[in-house]
Design goal:
By secondary structure, the protein is α+β, with helices and mostly antiparallel strands. It has one helix at residues 54-80; strands at 3-5, 9-13, 20-31, 34-45. The chain has a 4-stranded antiparallel sheet, with no helix packed on it. Strand 1 and strand 2 (9-13) form a beta hairpin. The longest helix is centred in the C-terminal third of the chain and has 27 residues, at 54-80. It starts with a strand and ends in a 7-residue tail after the last helix. The mean pLDDT is 83.
Length: 87
């Protein structure tokens, strides 16, 4: 972990052993409806992944991130008893 502001923000970067170089920042903000999570990600492929166009990597990562966050939202809503929202 690179930076931490408890209950507000976390920033981390991948290690040198990873096939991608990624810097991720997660920011939590209280809003009327609950909590807004904003994610900033900057990454580049290393090794053989450098040969894959950046747009292809971004599309694959974005789809995976959306799916992961949707599963997390559904799980959190089921634990809280809240009515599930449409994505």
């Amino acid at each position: 972990m690179q930076e931490l502001e408890p209950e507000r923000r976390i920033v981390y970067e991948t290690t040198g052993e990873s096939s991608v170089s990624v810097r991720s920042e997660f920011v939590w903000e209280k809003v009327e409806q609950g909590t807004r999570v904003t994610i900033y990600i900057d990454g580049k492929g290393r090794g053989v992944l450098k040969l894959i166009p950046q747009k292809v990597l971004e599309a694959a990562f974005s789809e995976e991130l959306r799916n992961t966050l949707d599963r997390l939202r559904k799980q959190m809503e089921s634990l809280s008893g809240a009515e599930p929202e449409a994505p």
